[in-house]
Amino acid sequence: MASHSRPRRREDFQVAVICALPLEYDAAVFACDELRNAPGDYNAYATGRMGGHDIVLLLLPNMGKVGAASAAASLRSSYHGIRLAILTGICGGVPGVGTTNEVFLGDVVISKSIVQYDLGRKYPSRFKAKDSIEESLGRPSKEVRSLVATFQTIRGLSALQRRASQILEQVQRRSTDEGHQTLYRRPAATEDRLFESDYLHRHRNSSQCGCNESNACESAQAASCDVLRCERSHLVSRSSSLETQASPEQAEFGTAGREFRVLVGRVGSADTVLKAGLERDRIAGEHDLVAFEMEGAGIWDEIPCIVIKAVCDYADSHKNKEWQHFAAATAASTTKALLEHYMHTSSADLKLCIRSNGFSGTSRTSATSTRLQNRARESRFMVLEVLGNATASSEPLCFLISSRKTQIALAYVFWMQHAHPDVFVFWVHASNADRFRQAYSTIAQECGIPGYDDPKVDMLKLVKTWLENGTRGQWLMVIDNADDTQLFFPSLSNDSITNTHLSANTQDGLGRYIPECGHGCILVTTRNKQTASKLTWGKPIIKVGDMSENESSQMLHKILHDDVSAKELSILSARLEYLPLALAQAAAFIQENSVSIDRYLKLLEESNDSLVDQLSEPFEAIGRDSGTPHALTATWIVSFNQIQQQDPLASDLLSFACLLDRQGIPENLIVGFCEQRKKRGQQISTSKMLKALGTLKAFSLVSEAKDNVIDMHRLVQLVTRKWLEMQDGLAGCIGDALEVVSDLYPYGRYESRQLCQDYLPHANAVLQHNGSSSHNERLTRAFLLLNVTGYFLYCGRWAQAEQVAAQSIKLREEILGEEHPDTLRSMGNLAATYRNQGRWEEAEELNMRVMETSLRVLGEEHPYTLTSIANLALTYMNQGRWKEAEELNVRVMEMNKRVLGEEHPETLRSMHNLALTWKDLEQWEDAMQLLQDCVRRRENVLGVNHPETMSSASALSDWELDFRETSREGSMMPSDIRCFYIAIVRLMNTAQP
User: Fold this and answer.
1) pLDDT tens for each residue of 271-301
2) Fewer CB near the terminus (10 Å): N or C of the chain?
3) What is the DSSP letter of 525?
4) What residue stretches are annotated with the Nucleoside phosphorylase domain (predicted)?
5) Exposed e or buried b for every residue in 68-83, given b needs 16+ CB within 10 A?
């Protein structure tokens, strides 16, 4: 055996093998290459090596989901590095006679997903189980999905099965060498008996016991079929086509005959042992199951998990223990074979991965302007005094209430990177829900968190859970501008949340998504004492006072250098109330225009006191003290008057930008505004636009962030909006901003997902403003709402999609009428939200209405009409009304081919849907041929890594395997399609983090 260095720390173990029964544990021990703890010690973790991995081997204290969940949680806390758990052992199988998934005793099942069939709701006439864990508790991790997908290919599954058979022989030989001659011998084929589902295991002469046609007494349940003389005439006749010629090894270990088979499918998990044939068939048919077991659901919710169990009985009343040891051995052998395919990442590699993505304090602040860095350095000593012990202490949260809170947080990040370079820093903008969600999405993407690329994943929960995992190392999260109490704690106010229709799903507040763990520290900046008090859980709030005269003078001196006296700096600082933003604007004006401090003070005195008072009004609503708004407003007036004279385009850009979200304003939106002005006759070149932006930066009215985006201070945004209102220009600017964002915001789909995410906060912002009531502006608003609906549909944010779709419909119905094509399109989106929320009757009613109106008004071949027919077909498919769905899907596909062309994405989508319908109608050959054509065309049109291409290819591979096994014929899948699917699997494997 090649030498291998043993793990030095518990966190170096990444794989756990878990067993529920001692006999399962014994088989796993025989499959291990090395075991480092006494195999008989069932009360402690054993460690060893299996399939090229250092593993933790665990025997559960008892059977069932609850015990499994508790043990898995303890395992995770003891071994922080565990990234994959394999639950191996024995299970009850679903016979599936005559199907592609026909199961025999000894066959092994690998879980594709798990169904908690005993978890759900009890209605008067029925029990409705909840969805699979795959859907209700999040999909399996990307690593698990990619690994299992490999074994859903013909080549991958065949290789796994061959290797598992070889390992089984090794296990049998090893047990024989240790004196267990027959422990893992395969029972005789005659012992694999399947009785009819309704044939009960009971006493036939029931006069002396409680046995009857529907019940068996305890004595009968404990007796064998031979003792009860269960009639062989009730045995199910099964195919023997899989019998094989015995090799010498098979003859030696009693494995002659049919080789065990490995299947991939859905596994049912519950706290009860299933021993009823009819109930087995009903549950399996309802949930498409291939096996039943008792622990998978408990572990799956704690650790990324694969269930690998072998069938020892048929989950009916005729249970016996003849096959248990052999089944445990085949499961353990398959577990080892699978681990040989599993690639793992070391803890060091994970840390390197996080660092290489650069999502740390360094990357966040490297794009910060020199001026901002200078200000941060000026605050350094004060910051260290206030926050210096935050990371080392057990306090998870710190709060700053200050006019310079962001600069202080930045200074702390600079210090943290220098003093603790191993601490990772994440920056989260929290001015609104969309910014918060966008920041979490960036964290997930930059860190490669499994599941980040799933548009329907709960991104906030995903990141929170990932950060709370102890293997991530120490980290600091800065939550900046958490000023809106309702955003974090909606229940604190009786007022309605005004921003829900476009923000993230925050019905329960963002507060529940802030990570809580011992290895992470949260720094929250806020000016809202209510928010701070709630988030501190009763702990003291760190309140930072105003800048001192000395700090203010130092800040001005850094910007203005040595050409001013200390007395002048002191006078200017006092005049501007020591407010950092006002000081920065004043210094920028002095430097840009080469004027003296004395001259600038005179300009301040010349400002209209009435104008200053009026422009200061917005600050009163956000809790500013009386001196702050006047100081800032006075400097803003001086700067803005100068800009209007010097560069009118700069003042126009500021007026436009103040109506967007103040953070992360993309350059493309600025370009869009300039293009709008060019259409109106203005001559604006790229150099002129860049000069205007430079002017705004020079006067400290906006700041440049990374990736060609600009930020605006909240106070500058408020005073600029107030100035527009006083000049009667606000409504016109709102209309312009709405038009620009509406023109640039795309309809939500895979290709446009990143733009939609980046522009969503700005779409949110402009839609919050009340502009004019003109028809054109309201239609522009409706168009933007439509495109935002598309993005919410793509992300699976159904409730929000419903809200914005309803607003779009209302506007279009009022102006265009109910039968206008644009109105019908918005109605179709609303129906889609109903369908995706399981509101079938509402979806069907609205889809029918849209389809009938479209047919009458637009004609059968209009694209909107075709979409409405396809949507109605999907509603039928969701309800299992396959014949009705087939009729509509055939109609849509043929018309799409004729109107849009055979390779249009909508045509390919209709082909995919029709193939799904035919498959459920058991028209296998038609379904597979159509899906093969769809796969080829999607590869050519959309590309190999497009989600729709991968979806079709994955479905085709599953169907091909099922059909081949059922028909006993050769593969129906052409070689080019098979190679293509293998390429997709490889792509998924290389894409995993």
Assistant:
1) 778 888 888 888 888 888 999 998 888 888 7
2) N
3) E
4) 15-124
5) bbebbeebbeebbbbb
Taken as a whole, the chain contains a residue count of 993
The Cα 959–Cα 965 span in angstroms is 10
The residues facing 59 across adjacent strands are 19
What stretch of H or E contains 363?
Answer: helix 361-366
Residue-wise pLDDT for 55-72, tens only, equals 999 998 888 877 788 788
User: 863-878 b/e with 16+ CB inside 10 Å = b?
Assistant: bbbbbbbbbbbbbbbe
Strands 289-293 and 84-93: antiparallel
Per-residue HEC secondary structure of 919-988 comes to HHCCCHHHHHHHHHHHHHHHHHHCCCCCHHHHHHHHHHHHHHHHHHHHHCCCCCCCHHHHHHHHHHHHHH
Q: Is 376 helix (H, G, I), strand (E, B) or coil?
A: helix
Rounded CA-CA distance 416/425 in Å is 9
- What is the H or E stretch that residue 93 is in? strand 84-93
Query: Which residue is associated with the tokens 């081997």?
Result: 57
Q: In this structure, are residues 31 and 333 in contact, taking their beta carbons and an 8 Å threshold?
A: yes
Is the per-residue pLDDT at 741 higher than 80? yes
Q: Which of 194, 177, 175, 195 is nearest to 185 (CA)?
A: 175
**Residues with Cβ within 8 Å of residue 384, at least 6 apart in sequence:** 415
CA-based end-to-end distance of the chain: 30
Burial zone of 558 (CB within 10 Å; 0-12 exposed, 13-18 middle, 19+ buried):
middle
Neighbour-count burial for 630-639, b at 16+ CB within 10 Å, e otherwise: bbbbbbbbbb
pTM for the structure as a whole: 0.53
Q: Pick the closest to residue 263 from 114, 104, 31 (CA basis).
A: 104
Place of tokens 């929000």: 800
Element (H, E) at 616: none
CA distance 428 to 515: 12
Contact 636, 628 (CB under 8 A): no
Give the tens place of pLDDT for each residue, 340-389. 887 644 333 333 333 333 333 333 333 233 333 343 343 444 444 445 44
Distances, alpha carbon 81 to alpha carbons 95, 186, 300, in Å? 38, 37, 16
pLDDT range class, residue 151, cuts 50, 70, 90: confident
Per-residue DSSP letter, 15: E
Write the CA distances from 136 to 111, 512, 559, 838, integer angstroms.
16, 19, 56, 14
Q: What angle do CA 487, 490, 492 make, to 5 degrees?
A: 120
Q: Which two tokens stand for residue 47?
A: 């460690």
Cβ atoms of 333 and 292 closer than 8 Å: no
Q: How far apart are CA 505 and CA 434, in angstroms?
A: 9
Query: Which residues, in sequence order, are bridge partners of residue 900?
Result: none
Q: Is 131 exposed, middle or buried (0-12, 13-18, 19+ CB in 10 A)?
A: middle
What is the fold of 347-543?
Answer: Rossmann fold (3.40.50)
Task: Give Cβ neighbours of residue 493 (< 8 Å, ≥ 6 apart).
Answer: 485, 486
Q: Which residues pair with 242 in a beta bridge?
A: none
CA 538 from centroid of its chain's CA atoms:
33
Spell out a b/e string for 798-812, using b for 16 or more CB atoms within 10 Å of the CB, else e: bebbbbbbbbbbebb
Give the Cα separation of 902 and 890 in Å (integer). Answer: 14
What is the rounded CA–CA span in Å between residue 822 and residue 936?
33
Distance from the Cα of residue 548 to its chain's centroid: 46
Which CATH architecture does the domain made up of 16-194+236-339 adopt? Answer: 3-Layer(aba) Sandwich (3.40)
**Of 534, 590, 603, 528, the residue nearest 563 (C-alpha):** 590
